[in-house]
Batch of 4 targets.
Target 1
Amino acid sequence: MFVDGACRGNPGPAGIGVAILDGDHIVKEISKPIGDATNNIAEYSALVFGLQEALKLKAESLEVFMDSELVCRQIAGQYKIKSQNLKFLYDQAMHLLEGFKDVKVKHVPREQNKQADKLATGSLKD
């Protein structure tokens, strides 16, 4: 699963992009505006929404790829969460992660997350 959040301004109009794949086959794509938010809130929202969707699809094992180093490191316990807004989304993500038998959240360079980025930025169309 590839996830990304985008916003115009920080904060500003924000959206999420999620691409769920089974091998090379696209199972589900999500492109959704989420209102005004910061980039970090958009990134976390994309992760939460994607995890919910993967659970609905009855996925047991999941690899999540995202280009937000902050979110990946907070999920891994390497960075503390200082913002209460992010803490709430972090708690949601951690709760959803418990629903999988095997799950990994990995940081990838932006160039390797183009599909989710396109979906996230596409949700911001006027």
Note: The chain has a mean pLDDT of 96.
Target 2
Amino acid sequence: MIEWKDEYAIGIPLIDEQHKKLFEIAENAQSLLLMPEYIDKFDEILSIVEELKAYVVFHFGAEQGLMEKIKYPKYFSHSIEHQDFIDEMNKLSLDSIDQDQQSHLLYIVNLIIEWITQHVLEKDRVMAAYYKEVQSKS
């Protein structure tokens, strides 16, 4: 199962709490994926997709606000990655989700896991180190 571990923390409590919510959404998608395939999961998938879309917009806004506040030098490239994730979510089509529910659930789970491993654990950690450096100087 996908679950939050302390090793995923970047050391900024607000952002870590928000990242925990991403894990929760991924866990919900994975649980749905593991249910028998003959069950119609369309409404639940749409709920997960909508929750994820809304949550990342909220979370990315908070994270970008923090980066602006500390004048993070990699703000632009970091923000582009946020937008790329949103664009990926917006590519999901209702018709295609309904026609192949399992592969779309797998895609959503993998998208979140990839985001956590490639963005949160790498890019967000670099941003957090910069944040801590700025905080230590003030």
Note: Residues 22 and 55 are 8 Å apart (CA to CA).
Target 3
Amino acid sequence: MTTAPDVLVKFKQTPKYEELLATGVKVASICPLMYTNNPLTKVRRIMTSSNKLRTYSIARYYKDQEILNYLVGKAVN
């Protein structure tokens, strides 16, 4: 997951940060578009709710609710 640097600093101060890391999620403050330009990301599935990111990268667009459903184990249509 990616986020703004200031948001990451504040999130790291909460107990939820450690809970998220325990699930195997990695959190970065790199620009998502720059992240997807790395050739190593081409072998990974990237989900986004950003029109800009889906336009300029290989990320697949989903609505916020669809991403949430995927994250909690519900079927994504």
Note: The first strand starts at residue 47 and ends at 48.
Target 4
Amino acid sequence: MFHVVLRRSGPQWDPSKPLEEQSGWPEHAAFMDGLVDAGFIVLGGPLFDEHRVVHAVEAQSEDAIRSTLARDPWSGTHLEVDAIEAWTIRLDGRR
């Protein structure tokens, strides 16, 4: 089952610094790369405002998503979950 996950910047996000200069970036990036490698995150990235992030996630439940993202080194500090919505994919141009 697919879900759309919307995350937003948390209390330790420093808007004066680019993404790669935020504290704990290497650990967060490694964690997220692992989720992509595992097939958990299908697509993801920041929105234009750079304070919100969207992920297309393949998981069985919202609880599974929350427990997985809770292990992110940025969870609750640099990123917080705003919303998780189940998503019915009807069009898929990926090959």
Note: The mean pLDDT is 95.
